[in-house]
C-alpha cells in the first residue's frame, strides 16, 4: 500500500536532478528550464482548481502520497500564481531574443515562491509529515537561482539618452524629483512595516505587536508556517534590499537599479498575492483569517506593498536618465587619470 510513496518521491527527485544536470551541461539552453517550469505551472494550476472544487480526481493520489501541504490555502494561492508564471514563460519563449527583463521578473517571483515554500513546509505543521516527493522542489529551487544568475549576467540593453539629458537629470536634488521623493517615502514605510511584522512573528511582547497579530493579521500565527517564513524573509532579505534600492534612487548613476527593481517587483508580487489570498481563503481556519471589520485596511496595506516595487521598477524603466552612468563632458585626460 505504501510502496508508491518512495517510488513517486524518488522518481520526482531523479527527474529533477537529471534535468538540473542536463541543463547545467547545456548552459545555452534556458528554454529547457522554461519547458520544465511550464509543465510545473500546469500541475500547479490543476491543483488550485481541484482544491477550490472546479475540477476533481486529478490530484488526490499525489496529495495523499506526495505533498499534503499543497491543500493549504497558501499553496492554493501559490498554485493560482502559476498562471502569471505561465504567461511570463510563454512570452519569454515567444520573444526568444529580448527576454532579459521578463526573465528577471520571473526569476524574482520563482525564487520568492521557493524560498517561502520550502522552509514553510519544514517548520510548519506539515514538517513532521514530509514525503520523498517534497524533494522535487530542490531542483526547481536551484534552477531558479541558476536562471537568475544567467539573466543578471546577460548584457543589458541600455536606452539611448543624450549626455546633456543625463547631466541635467543628475543635477536635480530629491526635492526636484517629486516622483522619486514619493517612492522614497513609500519604500521607507515598507521597510518600517517589514521590520514591524518581523518582530510580530518573532513574538515581540510589545502591545502594538500583540494587538496587530490578534486584531489585524491573525494569519501570521497560522501553524501551517508559510506566513511566518515570509515575514522573516522580508525582515532579513527585503529590508537590506529596499535599503540598497533607496540608495540607488538617491545616488546618480546606479544603472544596476534597472535590473534589481524588476527582480524585486516579481518577488513582492508573488509573495503578497499568496499572503493576501491565503489570509482570506476558506481553507484557512476561521480564527486565522483577517477579521471582517479590519479586512479593507489590511488588504489595502498589503496591496500597496506589492504595488510600490512595481511602480519603482516602472519608474526606472520609463525614465532611466538619472540611473545611467554619467558621461562627463569636457573632462580632461588628467582628471580621468586622477579619478
Automatic annotation (TrEMBL):
Protein origin, superkingdom: Eukaryota
Annotated keywords: Membrane, Repeat, Transmembrane, Transmembrane helix
Location in the cell: Endomembrane system
Cited InterPro entries: EXPERA (IPR033118), TM6SF1-like (IPR047195), TM_Tm6sf1/2 (IPR059044)
The protein, known as: EXPERA domain-containing protein
Entry's transmembrane regions: 12-35, 72-92, 104-127, 133-152, 181-202, 229-249, 256-278, 298-316
Membrane topology recorded in Swiss-Prot or TrEMBL: Multi-pass membrane protein
Native species: Xiphophorus couchianus (Monterrey platyfish)
Record-level GO cellular component terms: endoplasmic reticulum membrane; endoplasmic reticulum-Golgi intermediate compartment membrane
Family: Belongs to the TM6SF family.
Amino acid at each position: 500500500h505504501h510502496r508508491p510513496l518512495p517510488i513517486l518521491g524518488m522518481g520526482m527527485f531523479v527527474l529533477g536532478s537529471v534535468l538540473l544536470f542536463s541543463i547545467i551541461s547545456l548552459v545555452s539552453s534556458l528554454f529547457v528550464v522554461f519547458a520544465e517550469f511550464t509543465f510545473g505551472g500546469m500541475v500547479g494550476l490543476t491543483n488550485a482548481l481541484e482544491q477550490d472544487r472546479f475540477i476533481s480526481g486529478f490530484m488526490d493520489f499525489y496529495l495523499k502520497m506526495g505533498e499534503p501541504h499543497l491543500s493549504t490555502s497558501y499553496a492554493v494561492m501559490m498554485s493560482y500564481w502559476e498562471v502569471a508564471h505561465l504567461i511570463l514563460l510563454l512570452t519569454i519563449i515567444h520573444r526568444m531574443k529580448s527576454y532579459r527583463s521578463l526573465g528577471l521578473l520571473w526569476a524574482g517571483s520563482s525564487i520568492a515562491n521557493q524560498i517561502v515554500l520550502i522552509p514553510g513546509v519544514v517548520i510548519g505543521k506539515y514538517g513532521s509529515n514530509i514525503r520523498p516527493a517534497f524533494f522535487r522542489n530542490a531542483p526547481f529551487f536551484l534552477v531558479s537561482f541558476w536562471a537568475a544568475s544567467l539573466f543578471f549576467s546577460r548584457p543589458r540593453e541600455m536606452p539611448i539618452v543624450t549626455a546633456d539629458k543625463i547631466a541635467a537629470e543628475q543635477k536635480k536634488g530629491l526635492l526636484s524629483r517629486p516622483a522619486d521623493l514619493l517612492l522614497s517615502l513609500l519604500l521607507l514605510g515598507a521597510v518600517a512595516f517589514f521590520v514591524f511584522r518581523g518582530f510580530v512573528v518573532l513574538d515581540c511582547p510589545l502591545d502594538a505587536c500583540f494587538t496587530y497579530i490578534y486584531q489585524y493579521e491573525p494569519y501570521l500565527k497560522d501553524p501551517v508556517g508559510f506566513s511566518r517564513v515570509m515575514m522573516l524573509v522580508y525582515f532579513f532579505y527585503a529590508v537590506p534590499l529596499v535599503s540598497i534600492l533607496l540608495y540607488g534612487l538617491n545616488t546618480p548613476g546606479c544603472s544596476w537599479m534597472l535590473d534589481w527593481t524588476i527582480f524585486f517587483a516579481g518577488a513582492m508580487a508573488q509573495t503578497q498575492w499568496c499572503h493576501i489570498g491565503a489570509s482570506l481563503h476558506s481553507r484557512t481556519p476561521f480564527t486565522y483569517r483577517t477579521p471582517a471589520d479590519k479586512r479593507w485596511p489590511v488588504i489595502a496595506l498589503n496591496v500597496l506593498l506589492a504595488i510600490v516595487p512595481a511602480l519603482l521598477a516602472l519608474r526606472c524603466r520609463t525614465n532611466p536618465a538619472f540611473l545611467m552612468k554619467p558621461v562627463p563632458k569636457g573632462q580632461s585626460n588628467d582628471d580621468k587619470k586622477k579619478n
